[in-house]
Amino acid sequence: MKKSNSHYHHGHLAESLLDAVDEIATQFGIEAVTLRGCAKRIGVSPASAFRHYADKRSLLTVFATRALNQLADSMEASMLKAQESGEDALQAVCMAYVHFALTKPAFFRAMWREEMIYSGDPDYLAATQRLAGYLQEGFLKTIADEDPCDFSPQELLAWSTVHGLACLFVDGPVAQEKSTEERMGLAKTVLTQLTPVFTQQRS
Amino acid sequence: MKKSNSHYHHGHLAESLLDAVDEIATQFGIEAVTLRGCAKRIGVSPASAFRHYADKRSLLTVFATRALNQLADSMEASMLKAQESGEDALQAVCMAYVHFALTKPAFFRAMWREEMIYSGDPDYLAATQRLAGYLQEGFLKTIADEDPCDFSPQELLAWSTVHGLACLFVDGPVAQEKSTEERMGLAKTVLTQLTPVFTQQRS
DNA sequence: GTTCATATGTTAACACTGTTAACTTACAAT
DNA sequence: ATTGTAAGTTAACAGTGTTAACATATGAAC
Predict the structure, then answer these.
(1) pLDDT tens, residue by residue, A39-71
(2) A57 sits within 7 Å of strand C by its CB
């Protein structure tokens, strides 16, 4: 955090650019994010971004990865809290997923826009796997050392339902006029229906 | 279908532009669709599109609406076929949903990219409601004349699951290396788990 | 059939985008 | 102190959506 008075070298440009993407995406949506806009917001020349990111898509990939880890953090916290108080951990994790999508829609979109990012990037893939890991907790692992990209039908059902719900809320025509609280309640009702399917084989 | 030899007036530019979007999106993805590219493919000047569409977003809105109706057509056909042969109609409709996403990923994406279209457009909204209608068939309607945007928990569970599955296949890290057939099989396994939830209250 | 309003196309320009090449500055190791 | 390198700048490029001003073909009224 050392500050030069010359201001020629910014010093934290890579991270500052991510913050700029954050702010612009939050205010105007992920489609409005522009390299030149980010640079201008930081007070730096348009071309400077290319010293730190190969292209715009790389920047958005890192941003998406960052957003995935933020979501995973939030899911982890919810899980731990639920485990302490003896609540349904899977339910808590799912609700955290939906809550993130509702409160940070631009971030949630950025995570899954396949054509805007390099979805084969190792860090990105690792972040998606970390996220999926919290949804897999609470399920019996039948096979050890399995491919982390391979999901049991129960796990995939859980992820599909919560992901679909989040997507329909964010980009779809479902409950558009409703408040965040109302939609969270609706999500709870929907997810509760799944408990009979899971309670049979829960660990 | 009358053809002028002067070639000054194209005649079917509005529809031809939609076809161009179709072809470019299929080949290179929805992000690669460009007004100038569409115009060039048709052999028309870049500015001509604006006589038929207010802006690019309007064109993509009509394209998304068209794609939604194609999906709804496919779902309707699957439903009728299943009803004739006595199969599970809801299952058939869900499988048609996933199949469309897998075979026409660019179209499926275009339907739900909120920032690329005018999602408040009446025709677009009508198409989404038509689509949702096929998922609602087979469920008991408890309240008559209800808002078509309002879904029962069961209906929303069905839509969320199938939509999430489709999205995770198309944009997510799930089963990326698997073939379409394998993924359809996986989808069936996931969706079958929902039958106990629905059979209680099916009509 | 000629006239003419209108729908539908063209051309040329605008500001803005991502990206690159050539250049400049500051820092850090010798 | 010198100097190599990391990190910034400027100026240009082609490509984008969009608009204004202009051109042409169509079809209805006379």
Answers:
(1) 999 999 999 999 999 999 999 999 999 999 999
(2) yes
